[in-house]
Amino acid sequence: AQRVTQPEKLLSVFKGAPVELKCNYSYSGSPELFWYVQYSRQRLQLLLRHISRESIKGFTADLNKGETSFHLKKPFAQEEDSAMYYCALSLKETSGSRLTFGEGTQLTVNP
Amino acid sequence: DSGVTQTPKHLITATGQRVTLRCSPRSGDLSVYWYQQSLDQGLQFLIQYYNGEERAKGNILERFSAQQFPDLHSELNLSSLELGDSALYFCASSVEGTVNYHYEQYFGPGTRLTVT
Questions:
Q1: Is the pLDDT of residue A24 over 90?
Q2: Along chain B (116 residues), what's the average pLDDT of each consecutive run of 10 residues?
Q3: Is residue A5 within 8 Å of residue A42, measured between CB atoms?
Q4: What pLDDT sits at residue A91?
Q5: How far, in Å, are A30, B21, B59, B88, B106 from residue B9 at the CA level?
Q6: How many CA atoms within 13 Å lie on the side-chain side of B99?
Q7: Closest alpha carbon to A43 in B42, B11, B22, B90
Q8: Burial of B58 from C-beta contacts in 10 A (0-12 / 13-18 / 19+)
């Protein structure tokens, strides 16, 4: 069965420090992975997806199929990055699709 | 603002009761998804509708049901409510035109249900 694991519920770093939010997945098919972010008092929104291979707000994530990981990284954290981050796996059914979410990591960037 | 609206924002009700949560997708989106977020189980997919038809089903209880209407808004009905049903219920929408590509899901602000 498909599963997404985010081992850290809480992560705290100082401004300007590198940050890495870990995500591991288990899925027998070809995975499509995403990072969603929820800032305080805002709705959940897409941050980035692995197939686009782009950097959003300085964040990048590389899919490592050998290690079944999709860690989110940023070289220099900013206070405005403080938020809840969810790693998600997309399952394509024969019709329709769904997202399987990890438990989430609350990132706090301290001044 | 993603354009997805959900009503009501908050709902407090008693065990055994029935409630209806409403979701209006973004203009042009044909797919609607429902998710439940609880403290002990995180964000879990419940069900997806596409253009009025059920497309995918997750861990949705038999006491729960949903539908999507011709104007594409969706309702999630929760009946015989239990304390454990207290959670944040999110609706999301997407274009979902083909099975070969996962379209971004745009989330609503959620409905917080408290069962007492």
A1: yes
A2: 89 97 95 91 90 90 96 97 95 76 85 96
A3: no
A4: 75
A5: 37, 9, 23, 10, 17
A6: 8
A7: B90
A8: middle
A45: nearest CB among B42, B102, B107 = B107
A27 close contact with B: CB closer than 8 A: no
Which of A95, A98, A101 comes nearest B42 by C-beta?
A101
pLDDT value at A55 more than 90: no
Q: What does the pLDDT look like over A64-110, one tens digit per residue? A: 988 999 999 999 999 999 999 999 998 766 556 788 999 999 999 99
d(CA B72, CA B24): 7
Element (H, E) at A69: none
Distance between CA atoms of A61 and A67, rounded to whole angstroms?
A: 14
Taking CA–CA distances from B88, the nearest residue in chain A reads A43
Strand, coil or helix: B53: strand
Output the six-digit token pair for A105.
């990591």
Amino acid code (one letter) for A84: M
Q: How far apart are CA A44 and CA A70, in angstroms?
A: 19
Q: Is the pLDDT of residue A28 over 60?
A: yes
Query: Which residue in A has a C-alpha nearest to residue B46's C-alpha?
Result: A98
Judged by CB atoms closer than 8 Å, whether chains meet at A95 and B45 is answered as no
